Amino acid sequence: QQPNVTSYGATALAIFTLEEFAGMWINAFIVSVLCIGWIKKKTLNSNEKILLLLGCSRFCYLCFSWVYYFLSTVYLNYFHVHPTLQLFMHFQFFFNYSNLWVSACLCSFYCIKIANFRNSFFVYLKVKIDGIVPWLLLASLLSALSITITAYNITEIMYKDSHNFTCLGNFWEVSVRKDKYLFLIYFLTGFGYAASFMAVIFSAVFLLFSLWRHKHKMQTNSMKSLSMDAHIRAMKSILSFLVMYSINFVCLILTIIYAKKNENTMMLLISIYLYAFPGVHSLILIFSNPKLEKALLKILSCVKCK
């Protein structure tokens, strides 16, 4: 099949290729540094486990996103072969959900590990958090998988119904049923975004309240508090993620609104942000992690010397 792409599609593809390959390199760097440390030390701490899974899920998400957009732009007719479109779309769906849920786990981990509350349940979580993290990550992957399978089944039912009713010539029935199935898919997507978004909001609020209490106690003490520094570093990371997550959630709503209106320019702007999010946030995580920041600066200094 000969490639068929407009100048608009070529421009969009160039932009997405640039930002997605940049995001792939950033997340591949995180995974490589953590895996090398894992081989050397034979162990990973809880923070590194979350970052490793997050880097892997984001790398895979960006890979599938780029392949999906490339084929849908250059070889559009290739997607008419069932179920190519569904498979690519739902692999992208799964890794995006994994990315969101594991990111929420990272924020929750920072909150539990650093915040100081006297509540017995919170103290129990703080003591047991290292043992809970693997189960949280497993639950995140299983949740993403279950929602993806549900969405795939809905898409399959929608495809079969559309094919049957089109053969009968009932196009109005096709439109009504398609809207119903699309609503279910949008509902699942919104539920996944909203649930993980709420986890990030609660983590930010609890950590901010803990920081305020700790600062209030330290007002009479002129010595610098290590706990205060840890609070501030975690707060910067979570707040940056909260801001980006908020924009991400707004972009999801705008995607639902503009998807049916065929607003290509608006959809392009939304997609540029959505595909840039995994790379930009991973870059923030690198500079908030001393081990990753040190490795990056070491590589950059070597490149500069050469």
From TrEMBL:
Gene3D superfamilies listed in its UniProt record: Rhodopsin 7-helix transmembrane proteins
Highest taxon of the lineage: Eukaryota
GO molecular function, one term: bitter taste receptor activity
Membrane topology, record value: Multi-pass membrane protein
Alphabetized SUPFAM superfamilies for the sequence: Family A G protein-coupled receptor-like
Subcellular locations according to the entry: Membrane
Residue intervals passing through the bilayer: 21-39, 51-71, 91-112, 132-154, 181-209, 238-259, 265-288
Main location: membrane
Keywords: G-protein coupled receptor, Membrane, Receptor, Sensory transduction, Taste, Transducer, Transmembrane, Transmembrane helix
InterPro entries with a match to the protein in the record: TAS2R
Gene Ontology CC annotations of this record: membrane
Family in the record: Belongs to the G-protein coupled receptor T2R family.
Name of the protein this chain belongs to: Taste receptor type 2
Organism listed in the record: Cnemophilus loriae (Loria's bird-of-paradise)
